[in-house]
Structure formats: structure tokens, C-alpha cells
Design a protein that fits this description.
The chain is mainly alpha-helical.
């Protein structure tokens, strides 16, 4: 859900589909590589625990192991990303003037 919201945000600020793809690349790199590097570097792992993609990566890695149990911290992080992304999207949507009929 969060990826969809951030994709919508990038789409609002891009003039063309090609520019949107280029603008999404740095965001996608951070959201994908930080959790992957967190598996090797403990310092980065602490930062990855506060990214929604880090929580998703924990879930993916746990499918081969004993399993993953969503805890309160992970739930709170996911909810915070959802709320922050939604608020940013609504602000950008209104700023672009797309809500006027």
C-alpha cells in the first residue's frame, strides 16, 4: 500500500511517464537496498527497521525460517508510513489543483 502511495506522489510531480520512471529510481533503490544491506551491517539494520520495506523484507526472509510474527513496533511503523504517505499525497493532490471539479 505504501509503495502505491509513493508511486502516486511521484506521478503527481512528473510531467511524463518517462520522467516518473526516472524519478522513482532513487526512491526504489533506497527502499530496496537499505534492508538488504541491513542483513550484513548491523548499523544499517537499525535504520531499516523503520522503513516499511525493511519490515516487508523481514517477512520475506522469515518465509524460509521459523516464521514471522508481526509485533507492535512493526505495526506502528507500517501505520506511520501509511498515514504520512497519505497526508503527503492529499497535500500534493490539492496543491496541484486536481481536486477542483
Amino acid at each position: 500500500m505504501e509503495s502505491l502511495i509513493f508511486g502516486l506522489l511521484v506521478g503527481l510531480f512528473s510531467r511524463t511517464q518517462m520522467q516518473a520512471g526516472i524519478n522513482c529510481t532513487p526512491i526504489a533503490l533506497v527502499l530496496v537496498f537499505v534492508p538488504m544491506l541491513g542483513q550484513m551491517v548491523p548499523r544499517i539494520a537499525r535504520f531499516a527497521d523503520y522503513l516499511y520495506s525493511g519490515i516487508l523484507m523481514k517477512f520475506i526472509y522469515a518465509t524460509n525460517g521459523p516464521g514471522y510474527h508481526l509485533n507492535w513496533q512493526d505495526s506502528l511503523v507500517m501505520l506511520a508510513w501509511l498515514v504520512a504517505g497519505s497526508v503527503l499525497f492529499l497535500m500534493a493532490f490539492r496543491r496541484k489543483g486536481l481536486d477542483a471539479a
